[in-house]
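Q: I have four molecules that I believe assemble together. Could you output structure tokens for the complex as a whole instead of separate predictions?
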Amino acid sequence: MPYHSTPLDLAFHALSDPTRRAVVSRLAQGEVPVSALAEPFDMALPSFAQHLKVLEQCGLIVSEKRGRSRWCKLVPARFDEAADWMEAERRRWAERLDRLEVYLDKNEEDEAHDKPA
Amino acid sequence: MPYHSTPLDLAFHALSDPTRRAVVSRLAQGEVPVSALAEPFDMALPSFAQHLKVLEQCGLIVSEKRGRSRWCKLVPARFDEAADWMEAERRRWAERLDRLEVYLDKNEEDEAHDKPA
DNA sequence: AGAATGGTAAGGCATATGCCTTAGTAACGC
DNA sequence: GCGTTACTAAGGCATATGCCTTACCATTCT
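A: Yes, here they are, computed for all four components at once.
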């Protein structure tokens, strides 16, 4: 999706794959080396490494090579951007429903007093 | 991404495009017909319609044809699944950091009392 | 009825994605 | 040094994505 690819685009794209979400999920535990991360997945290592590359390129994780293994860890900032966007939308949606409810209640009241629109 | 495509995959994929996020964002206002939704975008209508199709197929929106225009509205449930997943991860992450902090504080205290690990 | 409006269908094109295999390279273990 | 371990590079293949254009309906306006 390099047509546009803002950080948010990339983060959501990264999270649209179950393998990558599982990695993110696992990294809540802290740092994990690539081999340990890859172990649960029935996938060739190079394929799995691509997923890590996607996560790293969009800034959801960082990694560092120590000896012959590479350790990965989450970067909450990028994750938060996406989560914050979702919460903000959720709030906007909820506010609209609240206003709608107030409006409906008001009309009901008016009707009770014989003052329809 | 029909390799896997759970609802969560599809929702995140749908949200990875800025045009589609803008549509979701706009629909917080309520129902909007396709032409009005499409108006801000410099894109042929059929291209835009594809984006709506993606949103509808993953359950983020529903639409209904009235007369010759189609009205779209948000479906919060699917959106919430994605938002909930993100919040749950965020919480797990925060909890781990809390435990880490407690652990570090404890060690600091121990050191102060001359009892290192 | 005939034209305009609001989509929808169909198909085409360039690029991206997700997987694979094979072939390296760098660090450790003996 | 030599084999093993842990990745990394390179390239290939099928399918998906995002855009386009050119038809083609329905519905509504005049």
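A: One point stands out. The helical segments of chain B are 7-15, 18-26, 34-38, 45-57, 76-112.
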